[in-house]
Automatic annotation (TrEMBL):
One of its GO terms (molecular function) is sequence-specific DNA binding. Keywords: DNA-binding, Transcription, Transcription regulation. InterPro entries: AraC_XylS_family_regulators, Homeodomain-like_sf, HTH_AraC, HTH_AraC-typ_CS. Residues 192-294 form the HTH araC/xylS-type domain. PROSITE patterns: HTH_ARAC_FAMILY_1, HTH_ARAC_FAMILY_2. This is Transcriptional regulator, AraC family. It comes from Micromonospora inositola. It comes from the Bacteria.
């Protein structure tokens, strides 16, 4: 398989995309994809034929996993297994980029945590800042060049790290509200739609919208939106917005042009360079200058 190319999105065979294979060690395949949006409607549902982990990097789209529709963006993690049915759509006019790890079932069968992988149905959730940084550092190391032995070991370590991520470990961020409104399914559905709509607005904006403007976009009050979003996602709107902004900054830091941090602060809606540095350090534990060295090719 060539290292780079333009053709069908490996996630959905009918979606045009640019892709780059990072490695193919020992029954595993890791690659990056940048979707090219030509049609905004849904792809035909297709059954997965391998175990896959899809880690969002930028942009936003809609996905339908085993009949359940949701929003995927730079914070998203999607885990599928053979037989899961997936379709995607790009109604927002923007593309998305992501990293995909495909794994042979035999590889998972040999792991001590095999039951947790093989017994899992398709799962869609989000990554926290440490998991996202681990994902990006893994990609950076693969892009710099690893031998098959080291790449396989790093991928296995990442799989273990992924299972330690709290929602995958059994916590359900939306469980409290689902239990609270279990007798009112219409309320639960409305709250899900409201939270998803807020995610759409935040993920496709240029980070200049205020809270009142976001609430106006989704047709509710700031207080109601903040309360429902927190209960449905386990995250405040501010924390979620910062996660999106930090991921956008990390993408920019990995680029070779080396834009000044002040310019990045202005582009992504931070008060100034010091604010950007503080938010990035609080989320991922490193200042932007060090992250630029770690993430660059």
């Amino acid at each position: 398989m060539p290292a780079e190319g333009t053709g069908s999105d490996p996630r959905r065979k009918t979606t045009p995309a640019r892709w780059r294979v990072l490695g193919h060690p020992d029954g595993m395949l890791i690659y990056q994809v940048q979707c090219i949006v030509e049609h905004h409607g849904w792809t035909e549902p297709a059954a997965e034929d391998r175990h896959k982990i899809i880690l969002g990097r930028s942009g936003a789209y809609q996905r339908r996993l085993n009949g359940r529709t949701g929003v995927s963006d730079a914070t998203s993690v999607l885990i599928t297994r053979p037989g899961d049915e997936v379709a995607v759509a790009h109604p927002y006019g923007c593309g998305d980029s992501y990293t995909c790890l495909e794994i042979d079932q035999a590889v998972l069968t040999d792991r001590p945590d095999a039951a947790r992988w093989l017994g899992r149905a398709g799962w869609a959730g989000t990554s926290d800042a440490p998991l996202d940084l681990a994902h990006r550092l893994l990609v950076a190391e693969c892009r710099r060049g690893l031998d098959r032995f080291e790449m396989a070991e790093r991928l296995h370590r990442f799989l273990g790290r992924l299972l330690q991520h709290s929602p995958l470990a059994g916590e359900d961020a939306g469980g409290d509200i689902e239990r609270a409104v279990r007798r009112r399914p219409a309320t639960l559905a409305a709250h899900r739609r409201l939270a998803d709509r807020a995610r759409e607005v935040l993920a496709t904006s240029d980070f200049t919208l205020g809270l009142e403007e976001v609430a106006r976009e989704v047709g509710t009050s700031p207080h109601h939106l903040s309360r429902v979003f927190q209960r449905m996602t386990g995250s405040s709107l501010t924390a979620y917005r910062n996660r999106l902004r930090v991921r956008a900054v990390l993408d920019s830091l990995a680029e070779p042009d080396g834009r000044p941090l002040g310019a990045l602060a202005s582009e992504y809606g931070f008060a100034d360079q010091a604010h950007l540095t503080r938010v990035v350090r609080n989320q991922v534990g490193h200042p932007p200058a060090r992250l630029r060295r770690l993430l660059a090719d």
